Amino acid sequence: MCGIVGGIGKADFRNFVISGLKKLDYRGYDSAGIAYLLDGEITVVKTAGTVEMLDEKVSAFQGASMAIGHTRWATHGDPSEVNAHPQWSEHKLVYLVHNGVIENFRALKTRLKARGYRFLSKTDTEIIADLLEFHFESNGRIFLKALEETMDDLEGSYALAIMVSGDERLYFAKKGSPLLLGSGDGAAFLASDCVPMMGITKRFVDLNDGDYGYLEPERIALFNSGRQIRPVFSERKIEDFDYDLRGYPHFMLKEIEEEPQVLSRLVDNYFDPETGDYLFDKSMLRAIREADEIIFLACGTSHYASLFGVSFMEFMGKPARSYVASEWAYHPVCLSKRPLYILISQSGETADLIACQKIINSEGRPNLAVVNVKDSSLARRATYFCLVYAGLEVAVAATKSYIAQVGLLALLLGALTGSSSPVRHIEGLIGGINDIIARKGEIENLAEKVYQSRDAFFVGRGDSFKAALECSLKLKEISYIHAEAYPGGEIKHGPIALIEENTPVVGLISDGATALPLRNNIEELSSRKAATYIVAPASLSAKGDAFVTKDIKPYLQSLLNVVFGQYLAYYVSLKKGLPIDKPRNLAKSVTVE
Ligand code: AGP
Asked: Quick one: pLDDT at residue 281?
């Protein structure tokens, strides 16, 4: 994964790199580093820690003419200072930062070792620096050519920013990992996404795989497959990138509480109240109608959102399935003749999903990307794309983007069936979420009872099982409590053996048909001395329930269970004193397979 930034020309590069890396640390935050060119000399500072720690370590400097920076999510080699980027070549000709994975690095390392190169780190990145140096020394010292030759050698994914001793250009290359260029006033920049460059430039160049070249302060030289190409500029609006906590202690809390506003925005963007028409691309709706099967692909929270998509499609009589992207990519099963794929991803950069999209595109099949980032890789390569308008989501734990994804799928259902009811139902959902926000103190009290537990279970039936999956993912990722989700009826087929005295079990009720059997399941667990807590809508609630939600339309009801689970995870993590927005070992955008 990892985030990279770089720039050349007239700019405050200390500030640009450090603040840029802070904005990119959703891509990983286990080590960080910077290299800058000042008075003809390249200085490198690295830390086996966060960007904040790097900030403390880098001395104040001004007048640098070029800099690169990196925040890392370790793939090869532990998160130590020696493995942090920038990495450099044997003779300190090349300094570079890398996002991606070099699959053939062992073979290349052996080749380089045979030529006398020695390696300091355990990374797959260091070999790129050495390869560049090797080709440069062998080809008559032409760096652009060395870059082309190195790209030919590399298998895997990379976004690279490269500084070369004695060279006044900042080189770059991209394959498989995201990279954007930005053109400023007397300076040029690059970064893994546009956020570090917002406010400095409004003109961006989205790079395609195989693109490479160099930046000069007033010039972008772009190449692909040996030919120079003209950069295509696009603009981004600064208001789309709200990085302010706005008084909240954590982004996760802020983002949960933005959910009502996110749903309103979604409706505003996809429904015209004057005409009663949905505003989806008509050819996309036609393609969905004509498909004989809908296949949803996604990972993590987005996968759990896609489970609602399956139910919505089935409701309108359309066969549908959902697969975890990393599984389907290696077993791309499709039993229908005219499938349409719906790829759901907050970031639009998830490598497992991009791997699926490559297969789908190579077969010429239509695919719809449901994303939260307009210019993301998935969106750009999809046949159709829909934005979920959740706004920038900073906390690693997805919250508002999940609600927006399911909201979008509900609106899509409305558009496909020609019914405006989902718009009204989403208004009901907004009311239900506002009610939970007003009563979050009750969930905080409940967290007090749960936070010291080693294990926790979420149990549901039907839609509330889908909610249970998401609640357990939220709890485990930010509180590090081992959490599982089970369909109520399955518990006694094995998992019940795990129940000990006071093991917390949260029973999630969302519909009348399954309320009673679920209560019976929870009762069975109470009898085994589990500490059970039931969450139910008002009309299905009973004395002693732990939390009561508002009654809304049954097919959206279990989203209120999820909001409950988001708060529960938040407060448990808070009580444990954990880094809520940046849990250990995780990154917001998972750009390695
Ligand atoms: C969510 O809380 C997780 N951090 C993670 O499961 C995430 O949903 C998953 O990595 C998919 O990301 P995407 O939506 O950006 O594709």
From this structure: 97
